[in-house]
Amino acid sequence: MVASVDAIVLAGDRGAARAVGGVANKSLLPVGGHSLLERVLLALLQVEAVGRIVVVGPEHLLRPVVAGIEPPGRIELLEQADTAYANFWRAFTHLEQSSDGERIDRQVLVTGADMPLVSAGELREFLHNCARRDLDYCVGMSAEAALRRFYPTASLPGIHMRYLHLAEASLRLNNLHLVRPRRVQNRDYIDEVYGFRYQRDIGNMLRTARDLLGQEGVGWRALRLYLMLQLAELGHQRGWPRWWDYFRSKVTRRDVEAIASSVLQTRAGIVETTQGGCAIDVDNEQDYAVLQLRWEEFRRGEESGP
Questions:
Q1: What is the rounded CA–CA span in Å between residue 114 and residue 73?
Q2: What CATH superfamily is the domain 1-184+267-306?
Q3: Which of 70, 77, 112, 242 has a CA 20 to 30 Å removed from the CA of 14?
């Protein structure tokens, strides 16, 4: 059974955030008649298990969007801090302070604000699948099979993503997290990982490797896993099937979950969704242009969206 859960939407534009389409806060980018932030909020409002919704970002920019969404009162807006993690923690402690109940087990759904293909159906699927696992941190992912429809065609450009290539499947982070923050002992490391999330940047790759190596008790194991994942992705990007198949066979889902749990000092695990829309975000001009060009085609594959 899916329990009621509050949601946090990260819509900041400081720190590692990137401007797209000439707009400093990309959550305000329009696609198909709605801003990206509107699409996320409208989808969340359709999910019965979602209670309060807290948006964190620049208040003066986001207030007109939030004020225009019905029903009024379910969405709260907080001013942003300097990093995505600080924004998350500000929203979480705000929810704690204004609610009763046991603090240690308080669970929240965390999403980005730039998911143009978000749907209520996929949000429900994620929460349902999380309820079937005994975890304190559920990390949402989608398999490549669900994302191939966004790839380039013979005549149209597309969106080709990076993956975690595991022995079982190639998975993409889908911007959905269900977490009990006070059960995550090494929360500060999440802030570091978020800052290095653009893994096409060689500097970020090296900093990630350095930080993993420094993790007490699992440093070398974590570094080896990271290198296997990077080599598998190289084979995937270059079209070297034997290379890709060899290196992905060295990393299982259980390996990834064990290392993540050790590094974060919690019970962490992968929870898949099958629709794939939440895995599409807007991080660059090219992807935004593709979304505008193929919008109607992409939306036909989604369910229960705004």
A1: 22
A2: Spore Coat Polysaccharide Biosynthesis Protein SpsA; Chain A (3.90.550.10)
A3: 70
